[in-house]
Amino acid sequence: MKYLGMLTIFVFITVNFVLGRGSHAQTDVPADETPELVPLTDADTALNADMTRAADIYAKLMWAAYCRTGERNIRKSKVAYDALIEELELASESIEDKVVSAQGISFIYTERAALRSLPRLQDINGAEEDARKAIQLNPENVEAKWILAKILKERYISSIDRNGRGNRNTKALEEEMLSVGQQIIELDPDHGEAHYYIGGIARYLGKIELAITSYKALTRILPFKAEYHWELGELYEAQNLLEAALLSYERVITIRPEEIRVWNRLGQLYLQTGDDSAAVRSFQTVLESLESGAVPRSPRNPGLTEIDAHSGISLAYQAQGDFEKAEHHITSAIALLEKRALSMRSGTRTSRATSTERIELAVRIRDTRYTLAQIYLRFNQAQKAVDTFERILDVDAKYVPALTGIGIAYQMLDDVTRAENYLRKAIEQPSQEELPDAYNALGYLYAEQGIKLDEAATLIRRALKSAPTSGAYLDSLGLVYFKQGKLDAAIENLEQANHYLPDTPEILLHLAEAYLEKGLKKKALQTLEHAMRIEPDNVELRQKLDIIKSGR
User: Fold this and answer.
1) Residue 52 φ then ψ, to 5°
2) I want to staple 170 with a disulfide (CB 3.0 to 4.6 A). Which of 2, 159, 537, 541 is the partner?
3) Per-run averaged pLDDT (10 residues), the chain, 552 residues
4) CATH of 152-256, one of 3.30.2290.10, 3.40.50.150, 3.40.50.10610, 1.25.40.10
């Protein structure tokens, strides 16, 4: 097999380098004469001379190719090409009269360019000069363009290191690099390496649509190469094309079902697209693969893939309203993170994590605890939420989300004093960012209590500056206006809240109360009945509906 490349070269050379008129001369023999009896003429002698020269070039090319085969003697091959090119350049005849065609000479320059670009010769300038000469002679020389493309990429990387991406020379290289790559795939649409080249560069430059085009081509050329579908899925995610990303990741696990990281990505995408059952199945596949030993794991240092699966499936169960499973998996994630932290601290001097890694892990533990606390709030486990938020605040007493969350939990426990204290602390923390949740929570607390309503409105309006379409914040402001007796403003804000956050029983209850106070009993009944269809077991909704129906 190792001589197949040489044979291919020899066939190419035979086709491209022997003059057409040499072969035509042999067909000029009259039909009634045998070739060997035809007397030689002066013209025949001239043709034989061309053939002799072509054979000489052919032999030199064979020698150059032979030296290169298997990297026998790269330098000898280079010397052979040098001599051949010098001979061809010294020839005075025009391209039309040459024994070697323009395409043939382009081929020879391409071969020398390929040699010069090898690490053993490291003649990048010479390689670029040869590649450009080859393209000049034959603009459709794909191999020469490919060599030039790779050289331009190396020059581009070097220019970034020296001058930065904004430099004029760097920009020029960037444009030419992409241009040459696109010329290659126009000439050869199935040039996988060129598509990969353009896809990688385009992704680096943030030209995501161009990168997607390249990787789509790669998945067409090599449909069973999982890596290309994986890359394509990530690109679709970057463009928020979630359905397309799902299809790409599903293709990956069809090819390589053992890729548990992709199962995790699928789970996250299913969560984002609202398919909680599919998310559960995806994350469960990861956990079962690890539990069964189908995919190895370290008992002392749990991998982030397993932690991500527990975190993800917890969110899926939360969306399904399954408190026990949601709690179980998020606490499992916390336990694995703490085990990982212990492993980092107890490792050898060489294996211990860097300070950056330890900080990142501490933040991950804090965020996962916060998720657990949010689950407790979601399922009305206020005291458990308080306990969890306190563990976070023991480590970071100024962590605003935890201060806000514990304030909300105390509000649920009817401990207004503590709720107000924590929420005040939250909005008083120095921060470069707005704290809309904290402002809204404190404003809502005052609205529910019917106190400090002017301040409550100011706080909630500040929250709405950061998120003007937040259904929760509009609901809070609507409740404030309701308590102030500003019914038109209350209804306007509550209807907007229902628009941005539809089918939320709490918002529907507030809206029904505003309708009722405004004398719109029919609208109030319709709104409450709609809320009851969403939560038929909601006692507060049932009591309010009964009161309206009884006319009390």
Assistant:
1) -60, -40
2) 159
3) 39 42 41 47 58 81 81 81 82 58 89 89 91 95 96 92 86 92 96 95 92 96 96 96 97 95 96 96 96 77 88 96 97 95 70 77 96 96 98 95 96 96 93 84 95 96 95 97 96 97 94 94 92 90 84 64
4) 1.25.40.10
